[in-house]
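Quick review question:
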């Protein structure tokens, strides 16, 4: 009887834990840090960090957040906030200053692995696709594209 109870408890525990989804950011944590793209036109910086969150229903999950800026001669010309989180799929939520009436634009992951992330939103005007590729531990290449246009950003890790 003891063995049956132990087996029943083990089966119950395994069923519960196998149904739990992984809401961690471990597969995209390589993005954490401060990345810079310095050009003669100015400096584009993205700073990524991890936060712990909880939904109103009590679901706990991790997410990455980023602050992005483009600064030229001390003036901030562009600023955006990004939230990267996983529910059923990875979602890239971006809110750029003075765009989209202050509402976030959502992109859904089409590729996520230990050195590349691709997010797409075919309904968005531009970009329709956002790509991050880890070149090496201190070098990252980001690209926005759509409608036959693309713009790339080589970043160096500074922190």
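Suggested answer, residue by residue:
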């Amino acid at each position: 009887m003891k063995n049956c109870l132990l087996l029943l408890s083990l089966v119950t525990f395994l069923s519960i834990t196998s149904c739990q989804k992984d809401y961690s950011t471990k597969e995209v944590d390589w993005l954490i840090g401060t990345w810079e793209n310095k050009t003669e036109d100015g400096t584009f910086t993205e700073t990524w960090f991890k936060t712990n969150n909880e939904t109103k229903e009590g679901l706990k999950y991790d997410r990455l957040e980023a602050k992005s800026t483009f600064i030229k001669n001390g003036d901030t010309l562009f600023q955006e906030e990004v939230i990267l989180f996983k529910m059923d799929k990875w979602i890239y939520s971006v809110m750029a200053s003075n765009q989209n009436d202050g509402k976030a634009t959502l992109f859904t992951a089409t590729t996520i692995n230990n050195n590349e992330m691709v997010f797409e939103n075919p309904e968005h005007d531009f970009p329709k696709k956002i790509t991050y590729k880890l070149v090496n531990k201190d070098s990252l290449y980001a690209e926005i594209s759509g409608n036959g246009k693309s713009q790339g950003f080589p970043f160096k890790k500074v922190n």
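Why it works: The chain has a mean pLDDT of 87. The first strand starts at residue 33 and ends at 39.
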